[in-house]
Amino acid sequence: MRRREFLAGSAVALLAAPSVVRAQSKWPERPVKLIVPFAPGGSTDLVARPWAEKLTEAFGQQFVVENRGGASGLIGAEAVAKAPADGYTYLVGTSTPIVTLPLLRKVSYDPNAFVPVGRVGDAVTGFVVNPSIGIKTFKEMIEYAKTNPGKLAFGSSGIGTAPHIRFELMRQAAGVDILHVPYRGGADTLNDLLAGAIQLMNESSSMPHVRAGKLILLNVNHHTRIAEFPDVPTLTEVGYPGIDGGSWFGVHAIRGVPQEILEKFNAKLVEIGKTKDMQERIAKANAVLTPQTLPEVAKHLEDEAQVTIRAVKSAGIKAE
Question: In this structure, are residues 113 and 254 in contact, taking their beta carbons and an 8 Å threshold?
């Protein structure tokens, strides 16, 4: 599939949804499934669960998180793609299985079939290191990698995920030999990092351990420093401009879900996302909220897709 076709498809998908009987205004009339394409305890899971709780309260129907981890998000995306387009099954996570994976491998679903419904969190994270190897700054990590080629290992949620792309861009820009170890999800990655089996990762699930002093944050994945870690630099500040930027989490439906349902769901996501309570809950999940309307989130996905296409091509990321 041509990626430009995906971009065109995602941008107009909201307008292309078929008309349906107005009876859909009663949605939801039964439990709604939120499929997280990664294992429990990872960054995506931590963001999805407070949303499930608040949406259950708001709609009076159960919003249930179901973890379908594996293959960098492909398994979960496939489950959503095969579900009926009735508004009761959604994909919650990054755009990896929709944008990145189809660039790397043949997937069993049509990425054009996914429609963005809402933006539900932007991860607060950066490269973190296990302190056992004595590294305290990003510069020291690069120096160590150059003098000890192949001795550092970076863990990610899987090939083609946002953390993997960030790693490859950093590795290429710095010219270092660091091993990439893909996992089924961020929780598994974190466990091995804490145990010392790997030395680096870049996912928001690691942040509580940074705050507890068990891991060291080397940079922030943002264009500017963040208030919580005022002394931690951006990648631009340490000499690697153009590769700053973090992960965002979205809710995605399958094309064919009635437009009325998409609008109703998005309106509630925006409403809840503006509340102090939800902002505090998402902060505990190591993310911040940027509520967006349907057209805004579609544009954001399109812009991100363009960046991802360039990143995959320039870093030479390939399926293994």
Answer: yes
